[in-house]
């Protein structure tokens, strides 16, 4: 009997540690997914946030969060308040191996919730804000939700069902991200005063898709791993414990994932007549989130339906958040994690394979649980961000945002080969006088401007009826001051700044009007606004028609 118990305990511990490491590997997925969806000048900052959520999250959850979850579970579940006993059960347990293994399993879920929030706030948040919020979510918000649902608390006693964290992790993180993004405000240039939006594409679809696939792989630890007990000993025999339904969890997880991609891809194609790569990738995640709360009980048709619904709502909700709420949710955190988690959690009584009792009553309990978790996340997040805004700890200044958080916040360049050059001195007196432009029927107006002024320049050019233009991302050096980068402790000068080159070939439109329009749209009054050059074009030929000269333009 004792030998069988030892075998069961050992196998169960190995299983929990294995899936814990798998969930921990999801940090790499979060890092790549979020880094791919931000601008190149903010990649290192986003990677740093992932490290912050891991370091601060583990420390705080070990120091405070695990005990808070235990206390909340005992008190709201009808037990007596004994803070000392709760801390002792975590930090000086009789069964150290089992207790501390469970702590680590809870810890990777806590830091996952924190990482979800960071994706919504990308590109304009101070590192200290991530430190503060990670401490709050892993020390207060997530542990309270854990205590209420998974540690025997009030919602658990009512029958609230959330198998692997659709509500406790994903809805909680998604709502926190939405509220935080609203309170911290959008990135500069994201929305215009007239209500229109400006698209700010991430710098790498490759990284975003790689991150998605890593998260999908890790999700098997997230869901399947929650069936945490492999064996049990009954009547002197070794029998399957939670593994009796692990096949259903694996199947539902897979079906939710792939049909999430189908749902998001179909709606994106309907809206744009193109199969959007990023929506397809995010749809996989939304489908996974949607099936996560019920993966242990859902019949496979229910998993298919939840995957489709979770993926399909993604483009719709993201459009609503962007255009109606005007919230700059950089990594689509709320539709991927927030609403998908809510839908999956509420669906419990309708997709469970062998549900008994009143579905309406069970649905009411699910609604109550979601309301509590949403209120908890939104309420505490609001207090934290309003307090941080009050002392100017939440958002970076406009100059840092324009330059990029990699250099200004961390002193690094993600792609240093584009900025690492020796300085070149310009001799005094090196002034070239303008002898006037040579006469030409065709001229090339070439401007180097700040990337965030491109939208205004395009608007100004359209208003004067300027012809088509070519836009190129470039790096350059001018009057804008250089900065200092750092690589493994070695400093170097970064004297090339991100710019946009705008080229406009002019034949009929007055050249001076084009120059004036560019200057008006690109001017901020600060060093680094750029320059405009006008060059004569000796010849032009239209490839399709063979027309030459001004007719080709």
From TrEMBL:
Membrane disposition: Multi-pass membrane protein
Residue list for modification O-UMP-tyrosine: 492
Segments passing through the bilayer: 12-30, 51-72, 103-123, 130-151, 163-184, 205-233, 245-270, 277-294, 300-318, 330-351, 363-388
Any Gene Ontology biological process: regulation of nitrogen utilization
GO cellular component term, pick one: membrane
Domain of life: Archaea
InterPro entries xref list: Ammonium/urea_transptr (IPR029020), Ammonium_transpt_CS (IPR018047), N-reg_PII (IPR002187), N-reg_PII-like_a/b (IPR011322), N-reg_PII/ATP_PRibTrfase_C (IPR015867), N-reg_PII_CS (IPR017918), NH4_transpt_AmtB-like_dom (IPR024041)
Protein name, entry field: Ammonium transporter AmtB-like domain-containing protein
Organism (species): Halarchaeum salinum
């Amino acid at each position: 009997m004792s030998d069988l118990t030892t075998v069961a305990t050992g196998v169960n511990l190995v299983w929990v540690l294995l899936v814990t490491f798998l969930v921990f590997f999801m940090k790499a997925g979060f890092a790549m997914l979020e880094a791919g969806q931000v601008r190149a000048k903010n990649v290192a900052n986003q990677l740093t946030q992932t490290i912050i959520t891991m370091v601060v999250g583990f420390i705080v959850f070990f120091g405070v969060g695990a005990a808070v979850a235990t206390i909340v579970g005992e008190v709201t579940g009808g037990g007596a308040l004994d803070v000392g006993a709760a801390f002792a059960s975590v930090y000086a347990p009789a069964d150290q191996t089992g207790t501390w293994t469970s702590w680590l399993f809870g810890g990777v879920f806590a830091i996952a919730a924190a990482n979800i929030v960071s994706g919504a706030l990308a590109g304009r948040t101070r590192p200290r804000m991530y430190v503060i919020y990670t401490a709050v979510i892993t020390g207060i918000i997530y542990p309270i939700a854990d205590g209420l649902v998974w540690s025997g608390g009030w919602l658990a006693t009512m029958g609230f069902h959330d198998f692997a964290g659709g509500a406790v992790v994903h809805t909680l993180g998604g709502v926190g991200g939405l509220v935080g993004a609203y309170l911290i405000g959008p990135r500069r240039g994201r929305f215009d005063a007239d209500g229109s939006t400006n698209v700010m594409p991430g710098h790498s679809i490759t990284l975003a898709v790689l991150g998605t696939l890593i998260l999908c792989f890790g999700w098997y630890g997230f869901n399947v791993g929650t069936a945490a007990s492999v064996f049990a000993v009954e009547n002197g025999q070794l029998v399957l414990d939670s593994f009796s339904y692990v096949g259903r969890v694996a199947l539902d997880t897979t079906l939710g994932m792939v049909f999430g991609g189908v749902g998001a891809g179909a709606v994106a194609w309907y809206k744009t007549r193109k199969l959007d790569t990023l929506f397809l990738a995010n749809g996989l995640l939304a489908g996974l989130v949607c099936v996560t709360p019920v993966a242990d009980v859902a019949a496979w048709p229910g998993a298919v339906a939840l995957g489709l619904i979770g993926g399909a709502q993604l483009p719709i909700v993201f459009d609503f958040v962007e255009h109606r709420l005007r919230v700059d949710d950089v990594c689509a955190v709320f539709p991927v994690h927030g609403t998908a988690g809510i839908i999956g959690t509420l669906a419990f009584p309708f997709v469970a394979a062998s549900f008994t009792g009143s579905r309406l009553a069970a649905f009411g309990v699910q609604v109550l649980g979601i309301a509590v978790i949403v209120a908890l996340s939104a309420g505490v997040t609001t207090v934290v961000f309003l307090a941080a805004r009050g002392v100017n700890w939440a958002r970076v200044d406009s100059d840092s945002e324009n330059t990029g958080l990699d250099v200004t916040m961390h002193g690094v360049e993600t792609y240093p080969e584009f900025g690492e050059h020796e300085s070149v001195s310009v001799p005094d007196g090196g002034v070239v006088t303008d002898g006037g432009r040579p006469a030409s029927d065709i001229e090339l107006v070439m401007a180097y401007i700040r990337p965030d002024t491109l939208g205004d320049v395009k608007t100004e050019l359209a208003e004067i009826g300027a012809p088509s233009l070519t836009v190129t991302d470039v790096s350059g050096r001018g009057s804008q001051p250089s900065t200092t980068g750092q690589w493994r402790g070695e400093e170097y000068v970064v004297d090339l700044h991100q710019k946009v080159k705008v080229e406009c070939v002019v034949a009929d439109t007055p050249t001076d009007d084009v120059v004036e329009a560019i200057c008006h749209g690109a001017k901020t009054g600060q060093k680094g606004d750029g320059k405009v050059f006008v060059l004569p074009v000796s010849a032009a030929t239209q490839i399709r028609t063979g027309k030459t000269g001004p007719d080709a333009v």
